[in-house]
Structure formats: C-alpha cells, structure tokens
Design brief:
By secondary structure, the protein is mostly beta strands. It has two domains: 101 residues, no CATH class; 124 residues, Jelly Rolls (Sandwich). Helices cover 0% and strands 56% of the residues. Strand 12 and strand 13 form a beta hairpin. The protein is elongated.
Length: 272
C-alpha cells in the first residue's frame, strides 16, 4: 500500500447467544516498510453484535509512512454480554482500485463493462469520446468552438416552372488533409403550389443535390403520387471533402410543372 490512499473494509458479524450493543472491532495496525509499527485505525469501532448476520463497512486513510497493515478482528473485553462472536464476509481493498459497490452506489476511478443494459441514470458532467446514440433529447446544447468549420446557404428562385431550375451554393471549409475527420451535411427543403401533373391528376416532381466540385451525386428524392395542388419535399446527404480541396460548389435542382414557393438549401461542415 501507499501512504494517504483510502482503504475500504467490510465485515458481517452476529452472535448465537446474547446480543450486545457494542464490542465489535475491525482494526488495521499499520507498519512501515521496515515493519516498524506506525498506528492503529479502526474501520469499524465498538459496534453492535446482533442476533442475525449484519454487514457494516467503513473507510480509512493510510498513514503517510505506512506500507503494510495487519488486520485485527476482535470482541472487546469490555463486552460482557455477547460471549460468542461469529464473523462472515471480511473485505479489505483499495477504495479506488476498481468497482466498489456500497449500499447500491458505485465509486471507482474507472468502470469497464461489456454491456450496460436497461440502465437509467441522471448524469452530471460527462465527457464522451465516442458514442452511437439511437435517440437523443438535449435540453441545452453547447457546440464546442471549431466543431462547425463552414456554412453556406441559398435558395432556388421561386415562381412558375415547367422543367428544371437550379441554385449553386459555395461552401468554404478546411483542407481535409490538414484537418482530418470532416463531414459535410447538405439539406434541401422545398414547398410548391399550383402543381400541374403531366397528363392527369398525378405526376412526379424531383429534388436533387450534386457535389459540382467532385461530380458526385448526393441524392435524389421524388414525389410520384402528388395530386394537383400543393406539396413539400425535403432530404439531406453527406460527403467528406477530398484532400487539397478548401471550397466545394453544391448544386440543388428542382424539376416540376407548377410553382416553386418557399425553399432553402444548407451546407454545414463539421468535425467528426
């Protein structure tokens, strides 16, 4: 052991005779590296001796010069009631050297488990290096400085349309070779009205996103059962900028026969 560290002790005791209100001791006698006596400290001092097994625990701080401890369990001679002392579950360990479960609580420097299932907890200050979260509800969020490294926005021109219409937005971001782990999220939202389906009461209108700089198609979404009237479509895509590229042009396209109303295109660059 080392000086000034904390030790946890635990013991269960009882008697099969007359009980006592006090008398049980769980004591540690400390010695230096040269086996010179330093002092005695009680983990459990002069506690009761009941008729059924009862577990009690405590902690002590190791004297600064101590390197060894001798465990001493005894029924003090001043106890004249309980003549028989039965001991069970004698525990002594470093308080912070792993999981420590006392009265349902866990105290540890580190917790290493394979599976925490059916866990429900209120967490205070937590630093998570990596996590996969299925469902997350955030009351107040604080985005770390530098987490968002670029943002651009634009909109497709509104008005009547019979065909396709585009808008380009230019996102400036760090070089992924210099700042690895970047991810760009591109989103498009579009509302149309006065939709005129080609050849009848239903037809198709399409939204598309393209990385013009790399030539990659980021995705297409279409509505094929829209009746004459109004409609809303939206979707998003992701990409990682190529090394050496610090500016990416993103093109949003809408194809329809009708009227383009409110819409927006966003591109945000994050550090993963």
């Amino acid at each position: 052991m080392t000086g000034n560290e904390e030790l946890y002790g635990e013991s269960a005791n009882m008697t099969n005779g007359a009980t006592a209100a006090n008398g049980f001791y769980y004591r540690l006698n400390f010695y230096t590296a040269a086996m010179v006596f330093v002092s005695s400290i009680d983990i459990l001092a002069n506690i009761s001796i009941p008729a059924s097994m009862l577990t009690r625990s405590g902690t002590v701080t190791v004297p600064s010069t101590a390197r060894f401890a001798l465990v001493q369990i005894f029924n003090h001679s001043s106890n004249t009631t309980a003549s028989n002392l039965i001991i069970d579950r004698l525990v002594l360990r470093r308080k912070k050297a792993g999981s420590l479960i006392v009265d349902g609580s866990i105290t540890a420097d580190k917790l290493n488990v394979n599976d925490l299932s059916a866990i429900s907890a209120t967490l205070g200050s937590v630093n998570i290096s990596s996590a996969i979260i299925g469902s997350l509800q955030v009351g107040t969020s604080n985005i770390q400085a530098g987490a968002v490294t670029g943002f651009a926005a634009g909109a497709i021109a509104t008005g009547a349309l019979d065909g396709s219409r585009t808008v380009d937005i230019v996102l400036t971001h760090p070089d992924s070779a210099v700042t690895p782990g970047m991810l760009v999220k591109v989103e498009i939202y579009c509302y149309i009205s006065a939709f005129n389906a080609s050849g009848g009461a239903s037809g198709t209108w399409v939204l598309g996103l393209t990385n013009v700089t790399s030539g990659a198609n980021l995705g297409v979404v279409q509505q094929t059962t829209l009746a004459s009237g109004t409609g809303t479509l939206s979707f998003f895509g992701y990409f990682t900028p190529a090394a050496g590229v610090t500016s990416t042009t993103i093109r949003a396209t809408v194809t329809l026969r009708g009227t383009v109303n409110a819409n927006a295109v966003f591109a945000t660059c994050f550090k993963k």
